[in-house]
């Protein structure tokens, strides 16, 4: 036979987890609703954020500027990297110019109500509009600032503006002065250098606004935080520039100012590069011209000295070949520089180039040997002629580059082009309503689940009889919960007896089962007397004692119900007995005999002994000999005597009563009585040399099993006044 699977203590019972969460569905639904409401409030109380965007193209630079082609090939001519341009766009040089162009260092803020101020500035609530003070902003109200100049000492300080009418206002300045102004007219304070002009007022009298001019660094930092720049694709040279903020049209204006400032610096940077190159060329031209003149003069002087005018045909041929080979070697050097970036020296193309260079160098060496074999005069003329040609080539190339740079400087347009001008998106990018509501709903549900699980983890209430049996208490019965059994403490007059009102109810059937269990369980008891107690108030012990007495009497047993709670006993209300009627207190005091104090109950064979007047010393009275004689009298005259006692953890009365009775049962309330309280009650009786005969699990509700975790009682069991 296959053995059933048994879960370890540290394993999670998914089925029980689902049941626990289902039992807490109301709490989960409530927290989820609260989360959705909180998300809706956040959306309503947050100003929408819009975004403006633009596209820029970084064009490739063509040509070189100042250097000759031979030198330009050595230094290279790479395009600017996008990351460099992005950092330039975010620089203080560019953003500072945009701040100055658009007056982005001005701040105008309305006076807003705390917590819900943003929502009140967006939506009109006629119900609470009259309650909100007049100085708080309402929807559609604003002022437009046309001019603002503050002294350096007032930077980052607030200036309060109060609207007096649609054309006038009053300013409270940082130095404590107040001045009045009108729309379109400049309000000035000559001694401090302050001046302000309002373009318009769209707000009723009483509204307050705060005006502030921040320092340049703070304004640039604020603009930089709102600015986003990225490259579309890799090495595409296309930059996407974005600017976010609450002012949709203002975003486009500010972004356009940033782009224009960037274009201006780009053009000025290109012009500066051309100017720098032209300066370099102009500095080199005089030296190149002097070198040319000196070479020509040296050649002419040598010719005059040697009375030689022309080179021989052989010498001219050698000179031409040397010049040609040197030019080819220079070209091969540039080609080698390019091949070195792509190939290794072992590549066939690279090897062919090296072979060509080796051949030319060998030929050049031969020509130089021929030059060495020439007569001294021809050899010197050859060297001087080569010097003149070299100097003339450099001078000619510098003149050509100077003319090119002049043209380039005159037509400088930069290497940045606007693909898409700055434009404001029609829809806000934040708050993202669907995402916020979804997150709020999920978080609300998670909080509800967490609360349910935490309360389930913290729960210590008894859930079923097996938990009591593990503590050594046999469970005589489990009494189902019945709403009619919950009596309101403030209710006046006679209280109904459930065993007489609902005779067929499952709760009464459980009491009949308890009656049977006690009949056999008390066969060995020294007296047919039963003490009923609990750990705390509201466990249902009085309900149990009363209805058990009724069903026992209905079975033909002679039953006496004694209210032994001399502090707060209320069983008399079920029998409609006056408060001052004599009872147990008078019997224990010796003022009355037991048979004289007993009252006939509503059922045949049922008698009731009320508490009588509450004595000042109930514990001492229960310890008298009269109580033992009362218990003996009950055993002689009744088949069952039930003593309803106070909670065992509140007072010592139940221990005193249990010492004289034949059996003691403990009443535990389902999902309310702590297991620790049960253990404490067992220890209390054990310390007195007594033991509990068994227990009854009262108020069991299958619908609430594992689903309720709160407790609402205290150990407060004070004596009632008569």
From TrEMBL:
GO molecular function annotation: ATP binding; identical protein binding; protein tyrosine kinase activity
Chain ranges of the Polysaccharide chain length determinant N-terminal domain: 10-100
Cellular location(s): Cell membrane
Signal peptide limits: none
Alphabetical UniProt keywords: ATP-binding, Cell membrane, Coiled coil, Kinase, Membrane, Nucleotide-binding, Transferase, Transmembrane, Transmembrane helix, Tyrosine-protein kinase
Catalytic activity: L-tyrosyl-[protein] + ATP = O-phospho-L-tyrosyl-[protein] + ADP + H(+)
Ranges in a coiled coil: 271-377
InterPro entries in the cross-refs: Bact_polysacc_biosynth/exp, CobQ/CobB/MinD/ParA_Nub-bd_dom, GNVR, LPS_length_determ_N, P-loop_NTPase, Wzc-like_C
UniProt keyword annotation of Kinase present: yes
Domain CobQ/CobB/MinD/ParA nucleotide binding residues, every copy: 532-704
Top-level division of the source organism's lineage: Bacteria
One Pfam family per UniProt: Wzz
TM stretches of this protein: 26-44, 434-454
PANTHER family on file: TYROSINE-PROTEIN KINASE, TYROSINE-PROTEIN KINASE ETK-RELATED
The name this protein goes by in its record: Tyrosine-protein kinase Etk/Wzc
Species in which this protein is naturally found: Antarctobacter heliothermus
């Amino acid at each position: 036979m296959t053995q059933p699977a048994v879960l370890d203590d540290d394993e999670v019972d998914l089925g029980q987890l689902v049941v626990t969460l289902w039992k807490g569905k109301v709490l989960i639904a409530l927290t989820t609703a609260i989360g959705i409401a909180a998300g809706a409030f956040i959306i309503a109380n947050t100003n929408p954020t819009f975004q403006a965007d633009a596209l820029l193209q970084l064009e490739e630079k063509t040509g070189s500027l100042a250097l000759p082609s031979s030198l330009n090939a050595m230094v290279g001519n790479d395009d600017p990297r996008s990351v460099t341009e992005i950092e330039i766009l975010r620089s203080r040089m560019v953003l500072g110019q945009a701040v100055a162009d658009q007056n982005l260092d001005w701040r105008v803020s309305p006076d807003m109500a705390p917590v819900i101020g943003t929502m009140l500035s967006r939506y009109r609530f006629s119900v609470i509009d009259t309650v909100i003070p007049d100085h708080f902003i309402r929807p559609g109200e604003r002022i437009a600032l046309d001019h603002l100049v503050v002294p350096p000492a007032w930077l980052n300080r607030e200036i309060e503006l109060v609207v007096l009418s649609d054309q006038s206002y009053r300013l409270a300045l940082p130095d404590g002065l107040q001045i009045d102004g009108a729309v379109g007219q400049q309000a000035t304070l000559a001694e401090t250098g302050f001046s302000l002009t309002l373009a318009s007022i769209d707000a009723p009298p009483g509204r307050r606004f705060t005006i502030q001019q921040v320092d340049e660094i703070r304004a640039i930092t604020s603009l930089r935080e709102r600015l986003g720049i990225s490259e579309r694709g890799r090495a595409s040279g296309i930059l996407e520039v974005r600017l976010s903020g609450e002012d949709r049209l203002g975003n486009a204006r500010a972004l356009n100012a940033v782009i224009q400032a960037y274009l201006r610096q780009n053009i000025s940077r290109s012009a500066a590069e051309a100017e720098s190159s032209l300066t370099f060329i102009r500095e080199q031209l005089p030296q190149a011209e002097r070198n040319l003149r000196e070479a020509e003069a040296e050649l002419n002087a040598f010719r005059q000295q040697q009375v030689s005018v022309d080179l021989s045909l052989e010498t001219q041929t050698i000179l031409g070949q040397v010049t040609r080979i040197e030019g080819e070697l220079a070209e091969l050097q540039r080609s080698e520089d390019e091949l070195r970036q792509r190939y290794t020296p072992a590549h066939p193309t690279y090897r062919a180039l090296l072979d060509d260079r080796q051949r030319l160098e060998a030929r050049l060496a031969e020509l130089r040997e021929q030059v060495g074999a020439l007569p001294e005069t021809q050899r010197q003329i050859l060297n001087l002629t080569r010097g003149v040609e070299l100097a003339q080539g450099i001078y000619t190339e510098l003149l050509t580059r100077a003319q090119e740079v002049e043209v380039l400087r005159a037509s400088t347009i930069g290497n940045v082009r606007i693909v898409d001008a700055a434009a404001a998106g029609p829809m806000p990018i934040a708050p993202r309503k669907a995402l916020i509501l979804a997150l709020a709903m999920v978080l609300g549900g998670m909080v509800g689940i967490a609360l349910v699980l935490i309360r389930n983890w913290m729960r210590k209430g008894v859930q079923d009889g097996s938990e009591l049996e593990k503590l050594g208490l046999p469970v005589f019965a489990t009494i189902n919960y019945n709403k009619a059994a919950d009596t309101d403490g403030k209710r006046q007059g006679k209280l109904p007896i459930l065993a007489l009102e609902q005779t067929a109810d499952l709760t009464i059937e459980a009491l009949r089962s308890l009656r049977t269990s006690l009949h056999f369980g008390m066969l060995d008891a020294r007296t047919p007397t039963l003490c009923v107690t609990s750990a705390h108030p509201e466990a249902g012990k009085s309900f149990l004692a009363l209805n058990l007495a009724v069903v026992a009497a209905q079975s033909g047993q002679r039953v006496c119900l004694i209210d032994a709670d001399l502090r707060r006993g209320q069983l008399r209300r079920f029998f409609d007995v006056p408060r001052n009627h004599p009872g147990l207190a008078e019997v224990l005091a010796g003022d009355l005999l037991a048979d004289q104090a007993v009252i006939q109950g509503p059922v045949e064979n049922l008698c009731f002994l009320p508490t009588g007047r509450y004595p000042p010393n109930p514990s001492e009275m229960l310890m008298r000999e009269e109580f033992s004689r009362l218990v003996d009298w009950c055993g002689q005259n009744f088949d069952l005597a039930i003593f309803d006692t106070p909670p065992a953890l509140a007072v010592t009365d139940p221990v005193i009563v249990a010492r004289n009775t034949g059996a003691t049962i403990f009443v535990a309330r389902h999902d309310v009585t702590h297991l620790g309280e049960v253990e404490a009650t067992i220890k209390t009786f054990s310390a007195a040399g007594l033991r509990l005969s068994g227990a009854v699990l009262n108020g069991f509700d299958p619908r609430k099993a594992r689903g309720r975790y709160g407790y609402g009682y205290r150990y407060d069991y004070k004596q009632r006044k008569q």
